[in-house]
């Protein structure tokens, strides 16, 4: 059983609020992971500055020069992850559909958080879809990443009631709060199990 925290990379495309929650949680002395790298496909992602302000190395590999060659972009990402000694990858608002190559490369070691109670409402516009469907509750799901979008094994969920008169924006804000609590605890539990196996 290892005693050193597991090095994690967080992949982002935007503001990085879930990334910040993971970084803040990692400051606890008993946290089993540390955020070794924040990585974005967008050099202008606001989350990169946020990560640096929190003392985490932050880098970008712009997807645009690679055109439609997603795997070539992901090979660059993979190389950067390995250069930083990363052992687990946490997707946090990373808005790129991954190729089977990267999913296989990090199989069993890549997590994502999705703003619905999977398997309900995979993909985008989850909050509006949950309200339109007449669901009594929404929430968020942490799952392992597989080649199918939002289809990997579920690790943890948090439920958020849908209130009368809810808008997608109001529901999204409450679900995001739940995400900030769920993701750090789910990631910590996941890496603890990995450490026990390793």
From TrEMBL:
Residues engaged in binding (6R)-10-formyltetrahydrofolate? 70, 112
State which Enzyme Commission number(s) the record gives. Answer: 2.1.2.2
**Entries under PROSITE patterns matching the protein:** GART (PS00373)
InterPro entries recorded: Formyl_transf_N, Formyl_transf_N_sf, GART, GART_AS
Per the database record, which ranges form the Formyl transferase N-terminal domain? 8-187
What's the catalysed reaction? N(1)-(5-phospho-beta-D-ribosyl)glycinamide + (6R)-10-formyltetrahydrofolate = N(2)-formyl-N(1)-(5-phospho-beta-D-ribosyl)glycinamide + (6S)-5,6,7,8-tetrahydrofolate + H(+)
The GO terms this record gives for MF are: phosphoribosylglycinamide formyltransferase activity
Q: Which residues form the active site?
A: 114 (proton donor)
Q: Quick one: which pathway?
A: Purine metabolism; IMP biosynthesis via de novo pathway; N(2)-formyl-N(1)-(5-phospho-D-ribosyl)glycinamide from N(1)-(5-phospho-D-ribosyl)glycinamide (10-formyl THF route): step 1/1
Keyword terms: Purine biosynthesis, Transferase
Sites marked Raises pKa of active site His:
150
As for what it does, the entry says: Catalyzes the transfer of a formyl group from 10-formyltetrahydrofolate to 5-phospho-ribosyl-glycinamide (GAR), producing 5-phospho-ribosyl-N-formylglycinamide (FGAR) and tetrahydrofolate.
Q: What is this protein called?
A: Phosphoribosylglycinamide formyltransferase
